[in-house]
Amino acid sequence: MDISAEPYLIGSGRLPTLPLQRYLPRLPEDSLGHWLRAHVPPGAWVLDPLGLHPQVSLEAARAGYRVLVACNHPLMAFILQVLAQAPPLAAFQAALAHLLTSRRGDQRLEVYLSALYQTPCPRCKATIPARGFLWQRGAAQPYARLLHCPHCGEQGEHTLAPEDGQLLAQIGHAALHRARALARIATEATGEARAAAEALLRFYPPRALTVLFTLLNRIEGPGVTPEHKSLLTALLISLCDRATTLWPWPETSLRPRALQTPPTFIEHNLMLELEHSPAAWTAGTTPLPLTHWPDLPPESGGICLFRGRMRALAAQPHLPPVRAVLVVITRPSPAFWSLSTLWSGWLWGEEVARPLYPLLNPRTQSWHWLAGALQNALQPAHRCADPAARLWFFGDELTPATALAGLLGPHASGWGLVGLAFDPDAPAVQSTWQARLPAPKENSENPKTVLQQAVRRTLADFGEPADYLPLYLAGLLALLRAGLLPAHLGDLTPGYAARLQAMLDEVLADTGLVTRLHARAEGESGPRWWLAETPWQGTPLADRVEKAVLSLLLNQPEVTREDLAQALRRAFPGWVTPRQALVQAILTSYAQPLEADPNRWQLRPQEQPAQRRRDLNAVTQALRRLAERLGYRVEGETPLLWVHPTSAEVSYAFYGLASAMVTRFLQAPHPTARHHVLVLPGSRAGLLAYKMQRDPRLATALQRGWHVLKFRHLHHVAGQADLSHDLWEALLDSDPPLWRETAQMSMF
Question: Which domain of life is it from (predicted)?
């Protein structure tokens, strides 16, 4: 089976603004569209067999494709429908105004709900809305409040006021709303499902439940038009997420990996959140045609939504010819799957939520569950697909177990892998699969031997130490090529992933094969492995990336970070995609941002080749004059040698270069020189120091008789009037290369 290394697609390099953003795969805008335009003719039918990321259908439809979506999750189906309509901000504002101006007794609903978050300003004593309240996990009340007083300007974190405690006491435990919250999801549920639903309610403070169910009661009441109800339901979905105790303080956009309240969390002011929540629903400006099966969208592009599982869709008559299948997943999130089941019940009732009951239990959401879910969708998708159809797979927040699920799911469904790309920063994988590809024949090779060969090949590809995940991916692909991965998920047990990892760990513990090292670089720290038999093999990835970045800067007067990222992903496909931290270190070493546009970079004037040739010539002349002053004889050019006049011993070998690509000298140093000196620009010293931190081999080699001498320091030493051998030796290492952290380039 031939599996090619593909460039990792980053599209525009930006992430779209979407509801429930932190739970969704971090799929860059237009990366899917880029793949479609390269592999599928415009206007063709494409299939999303999972329907769990609205961006898949929206992006494909905007690109002019007709998208068939099988979606069994009521929440995600609703989100897709609203986003396809692209309602304007004014529509949300009108619906909100109608809701909040409605009466609750003798006061407006907005006044009643806003009062739940009122707090006195600690400076001017005015009553103002708190931005939020800070809690310690398990505490009976908050320990602080966040505020920004519009009257006196006081802002920040302040201790709780007595009035805040009194307000909480009035709210109490919100028993009525808590009972209704449970009834909406699990009136008829018993046993484990009901217990799981009750446990989820603990992630909602009493004040949050009061606000949520007051709003829900009003939305379901008389006087709310269907259009307004749909828009308000959308905002309530955003509010259901912002109301939980799963938001750590200080805040972060990272998804909660476990269904657990962080040690310190923020209780948001849900009335302020209600004002801000339309932003996530109004990023799209152009409505897209959306129909419900069996009605079809126009040939110019659109979405056809099938409310059900892929298996049920595959059984429908007269399915259109599918030219591509699109699968986008992320690491299973117990928080999302459990809470989205809860929210579905709250918004649409127990009958809608009942099919999702198994998701209430986070223990069911393992790699084995994910692989099975993929097979359940992709097996019928394979049967529906055109013989020439391809499948595009994207999975982020990659772990060894989810990488295994992402490979076994399509493989066990009859798809054949033809290409793969890996982003080490996300970490994420993109893979291309082909329908009707013959499955690899099973063989009797030893899996451990296959893994050993894969590790050896992959490290040779890198030319430098690699971390665990690309080695694991390479091992998986080698097992797949050899026909050693199970073709039927029914043959697997949940312990298979652990056994596979244990086998690779055994390979990586073989000191006859590899050596374990430790990198300490910003953005690239942690364990690394390299071949035990040789310190060097080939050109390191870091040097190849440096050469590619420099070439791009030399050939283009200006380059954007996005253009640079795209070019590097084309130049380094598969699993050797360079990390952003390395690219940023190289860019900072050679280039500078434009004042008018910090996203555009250009080569510094002193880095032009002609100038660097003059610098190197000046360095050579300075070394020759120094040799004469210190009594050495000069021989050679690269390296330039200082030879003792009587013993003929080579005391120093100088290697002049304008880059930080020093490995070629470390691999083949002068055989008899006592000291080796790399002579390079000061602007390159920081990059070299960074490379030493990320590649322990460099640091080790440079500690064994090697020195680093910067151009300017050489000229400073040469200017010493009383220079002696002792002073030369003292000054040689007095200005070592140091790495200073810089703001890291972020594509997302």
Answer: Bacteria
Query: Looking at domain 541-607, which CATH architecture does it have?
Result: Orthogonal Bundle (1.10)
| 238, two tokens | 């955003």
Give SS3 for 513.
coil
Q: Which residues are registered as beta bridge partners of 431?
A: 393, 420
Q: How long is the chain? A: 748
The total of other beta-carbon atoms located within 10 Å of residue 437's CB is: 13
230, 235, 238, 239: CA torsion to nearest 10: -120
| Distance separating alpha carbons of residues 537 and 530, to the nearest angstrom | 10
Tally the C-alpha atoms within 13 A of residue 178's C-alpha that lie toward its C-beta. Answer: 15
Secondary structure (3-state) at 28: coil
Q: Closest Cα to residue 86, out of 241, 363, 223, 281?
A: 281
Whether 424 contacts 500, CB under 8 Å: no
Structure tokens of 292? 């419900």
**What's residue 194's pLDDT?**
84
Query: Distance between CA atoms of 285 and 62, rounded to whole angstroms?
Result: 11
HEC readout, 418-450: EEEEEECCCCEEEEEEECCCCCCCCCCCCHHHH
Helix (H, G, I), strand (E, B) or coil at 112: helix
Q: Which two tokens stand for residue 707?
A: 């020195």
pTM score: 0.92
Specify the residue for token string 């040789």: 534
Measured CA to CA, the distance from residue 339 to residue 349 in angstroms comes to 14
DSSP-derived 3-state class of residue 349: coil
Q: Give the pLDDT means over successive 10-residue stretches in the chain (748 positions).
A: 86 92 94 96 97 97 98 98 97 97 91 97 97 96 97 96 93 81 77 85 95 95 94 98 97 85 98 96 93 96 98 96 97 91 95 88 80 95 94 96 95 94 95 80 84 97 96 96 89 89 97 94 87 94 98 95 94 95 96 94 97 97 97 95 96 98 95 96 95 93 91 94 93 80 43
Cβ(639)–Cβ(737) under 8 Å?
no
Q: Which helix (H) or strand (E) holds 227?
A: helix 226-242
Q: For 4-17+39-85+287-333+348-433, give the CATH class.
A: alpha beta
Q: ∠454-455-460 over CA atoms, to 5°?
A: 100
Structural contact between residues 557 and 602, judged by C-beta atoms closer than 8 angstroms: yes
CB 477 within 8 A of CB 433: no
740 alpha carbon, distance to own chain's centre: 25
CA triplet 546, 548, 552: central angle to 5 degrees? 115
Task: Give whole-number Cα distances, 426 to 399, 522, 578, in Å.
Answer: 11, 15, 12
In angstroms, rounded to a whole number, what is the distance separating the alpha carbons of residues 60 and 392?
12
Identify the burial level of 351 via C-beta atoms within 10 angstroms of its C-beta, where 0-12 means exposed, 13-18 middle and 19 or more buried.
exposed
Dihedral sign, CA of 321, 327, 328, 333?
A: positive
What angle do helix axes 682-694 and 580-590 make, rounded to 10 degrees?
170
Indicate the domain borders of the chain: 4-17+39-85+287-333+348-433, 105-281, 541-607, 616-732
- Nearest CA to 640 out of 667, 609, 665 is that of 665
As a whole number of angstroms, the distance between CA 66 and CA 69 comes to 10
Question: What phi-psi label fits residue 493: left (phi over 0), alpha (psi between -120 and 50 degrees) or beta?
Answer: beta
